[in-house]
Amino acid sequence: MVLVYATPQELAAWLDLTDPPAGASLALRDASLIVDDLLVGAVYDTDADGRPTDPAVVEALRDATCAQATFKPKGTNQPSEGGKVASVKVDKVSKSYAVSPTTGAVVDDPVSSQAVSILRLAGLVPAHPRVV
């Protein structure tokens, strides 16, 4: 069973629309799967169905799911917000993006940085401290 953290009506509100966009239920289901993947290792209280019980966690998961559902990597030769950086040059700053060897299209990260930020700020993305 896939837990879906936002409703089509909540997605419409996130987008400042009156009605949910076409395909909202499917987009929210897929986005919830990605949010679940980001939550591996997170600790928060849940009910018997596995749903969060803390209203702040419910809100963060809803917002992250809506952000993820609206995130659209371009998948073209133009890098999008989620394009995977292949190399960075510091002197005379430059940045290049990873491209698919078969299509030549920019390889996009399927995860919305906004969704990650929402979860991180809510304390839900587990931190892995580096011990030196």
Task: Please outline what is shown here.
The protein is mainly alpha-helical and 132 residues long.
Number of domains: 2
In the sheet with the most strands, the strands line up as 1-2
From the spread of the alpha carbons, the general shape counts as globular
Average of per-residue pLDDT values: 80
Hey, roughly how much beta strand do the residues contain? 5-15%
By helix and strand content, what is the structural category? mainly alpha
What is the terminal separation in angstroms?
41 Å
Number of DSSP strand runs: 2
Order of helices and strands: HHHEEH
Protein name: Head decoration protein
Properties at a glance:
4 helices, mainly alpha, two-stranded antiparallel sheet, Head decoration protein, 132 residues, single chain, 2 strands
What does this structure look like?
- With 132 residues, the protein is mainly α.
- It has 2 domains: 1-71 and 111-126, no CATH class; 74-109, no CATH class.
- It is built from 4 helices and 2 strands; from the N terminus they run αααββα.
- It has helices at 8-14, 24-38, 55-70, 113-121; strands at 85-89, 94-97.
- The protein has a two-stranded antiparallel ribbon.
- α2 packs across α3 (55-70) and α3 packs antiparallel against α4.
- Residues 74-83 have low confidence and may be disordered.
SSE arrangement:
Elements: H1 8-14, H2 24-38, H3 55-70, E1 85-89, E2 94-97, H4 113-121
Antiparallel strand pairs: 1-2
Helix pairs in contact: 2-3, 3-4
